[in-house]
Amino acid sequence: MSTVAAPPAPPVAVAAAAAPKAAPAPGAWGLRVIVGLAGVLLAVVIAQLNDRVTAIAMPDIRGAMGIARDDGSWLSTVYEVTQVSAMMFAPWCSATFSLRRFTIGAVVMFALLGAVFPFVSALGSMYAIRALQGLAGGCLPPMLMTVALRFLPPGLKLYGLGAYALTATFAPNLGSPLAALWMEYVGWHWLFWQIVPLALLSIGMIAWGLPQDPLRLERFRQFDWRGVLLGFPAIAMLVVALEQGTRLGWTDSPLICALFVGGVAMLVLFLVNEWFHPLPFFKIQLLARRNLTHALITLAGVLLILVAVPGVPAGYLAEVHGYRPLELAPLALCVALPQLLALPAVAALCNVRRVDCRWVLATGLALIALSCVLGSFMTSDWTRENFYALQILQIFAQPMAVIPLLMLATNGMTPAEGPFASAWFNTIKGFAVVVGGGVTEGLTTMREHVHSNVLIDQLGNRPQTMALMQHDLTARLGLDQSASLALLASHIREQALVLASADVFRVMAVVAVGLILLILVVPTRVYPPRPVADTPVR
Prior knowledge:
The chain is mainly alpha-helical. The protein has three domains: about 25-220, MFS general substrate transporter like domains (Growth Hormone, Chain: A), CATH 1.20.1250; about 225-280; about 285-525, MFS general substrate transporter like domains (Growth Hormone, Chain: A). It has helices at about 10-20, 30-55, 60-65, 70-95, 100-115, 125-140, 140-150, 155-185, 190-195, 195-210, 225-250, 255-275, 290-320, 325-335, 340-350, 355-375, 390-410, 420-460, 465-475, 480-520. α2 crosses α8 (about 155-185), α2 packs antiparallel against α10 (about 195-210) and α4 (about 70-95) runs antiparallel to α11. It starts with 10 loop residues before the first helix and ends in a 19-residue tail after the last helix. InterPro entries: MFS, MFS_dom, MFS_trans_sf. It is found in: Membrane.
């Protein structure tokens, strides 16, 4: 009986059969990845704390190091410039040099620069160190989001994003208590040295927990050099304009006007370049997704409010009642510590399929608006205790406003799109914080001048009333005429600051209401991430 020979196997099939089985993908979910994620979270928290602590204690740092006020303002500005700029380019760098290698390098650089800063006396060297430290610190937040999106299983992804939300809610509020601790009880040097032991712990956790990806230096063949030459100066000019605007007089300063015009023009050119580049830092096409675009717009608005809401009471209490950071610490702790429970609770709520995260977001924004409306009734008699009700509302409002945004922005993202989403989200986050500080400071100053002029005009139109007030001050306090006039001027300035602070609260309430209305028309319903179930065979 003849037999028919089997046809030869196709070459591809032979090669597939001969090839060994593919090794499991590195970084599978487990204890090591949990430790690595915690290490990245710790690194981001210490970077955020360093930024916040040094900003709060800058007057004391200037006094200890003999730095003039104008010169000291640039220490904060150069840090913010490089920090926000680094957030733009860090995801591309992590994909090129590997996530673990790049993150550890950024933490090492950040800690070393912080350790040596107190020993530097030359102002130019101080600027250079703070700029490099901002560069290293800005590289860290994008890494946390990248790790959460890449390694967490679908059912836990929201909790990882909740950990990322700590950098927007927990870390900034913890800055005031830590600044008070080091300044009042230990020494200003520890404002910088506090990061070193935690950085060492973070490096160890990242090195043990995160998998080591291979180098991908071939990406440099398509390096977006035009994007760097356009994007970095654009962000730098805009950040400098926002940071120095109040000091230099905003539109009265030709420098500030030139920085705004040049920054906006270069930013437009940068975005055009990113649209056409084959390997961009930002994937502009992602903005076609309604939820991502809405999340970025709302994130900017929320962070603008979250900078103003704690900043107004702190500025008012320090200026009118002479509060030191130690006396302001309870207000910040009132919001910071409960976040450790509130954030996981909100993440669990959003992880329930029946819950629409859009309405969680609307509730959070409504609570923010309510706290701003209550703050608008402040008077010169308010002390720290009067602000606790506002802070209690913020305990629930902040996580309810941030976690749904993360869910809307990242829902449906593939691992390949994770770095682009991280670049978008973190750059908007970093820039919005700078905008929030500049807008709050500028709006407060502008409204303070308006109210001061109105009060002075009213007194000028009522000379009898002014004479009676001056006489009352002279009789009660035994002051001469010049001293009583100086005291009256001080009271006018305090009242103008109170009215300006109330105006800032009203503006932030309007912003929050506007963001609520945006929810009605832009975002679409999304569901919590879940593993894809295998389709049963019938």
